[in-house]
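Design job #97: recover the sequence.
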């Protein structure tokens, strides 16, 4: 099974250098749509409902302190660990979300039920490390057009 590091490296190799915010959101949407389309996780790592949107803490620790990241900054992971179908899923996410700015991705994720529900009514900007459940991600995105 692929890891979040495999997906992050794949995204960075396909799109080039980007902000850590954007990388986190593209990994989140890759997981969300994989859950919606296949009912299987793309990778086992979880996302938490941080104040700036969904964040995978193990990936965050890998790029902590970097505003911009590129593939060489992620020392773990191998893009070739993704199956052809998994690459197709990530490619669709990159086609649909890859042109959005980090702030647009932040606003979008903040407006969606999986993130909102995981924060349990906390105000915008409040610290939170609640896990965004994969079940809520799959169910929410499965209902989206």
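Job complete. Output follows.
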């Amino acid at each position: 099974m692929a890891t979040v590091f495999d997906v992050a490296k794949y995204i960075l190799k396909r799109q080039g250098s980007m902000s850590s915010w954007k990388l986190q959101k593209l990994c989140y949407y890759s997981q969300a749509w994989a859950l919606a389309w296949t009912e299987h996780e793309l990778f086992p790592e979880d996302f938490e409902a941080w104040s700036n949107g969904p964040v995978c803490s193990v990936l965050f620790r890998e790029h902590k302190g970097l505003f911009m990241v590129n593939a060489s900054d992620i020392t773990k992971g191998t893009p070739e660990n993704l199956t052809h179908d998994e690459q197709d899923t990530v490619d669709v996410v990159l086609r649909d979300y890859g042109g959005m700015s980090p702030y647009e991705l932040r606003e979008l994720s903040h407006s969606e039920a999986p993130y909102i529900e995981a924060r349990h009514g906390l105000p915008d900007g409040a610290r939170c490390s609640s896990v965004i459940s994969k079940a809520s991600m799959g169910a929410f995105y499965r209902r989206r057009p």
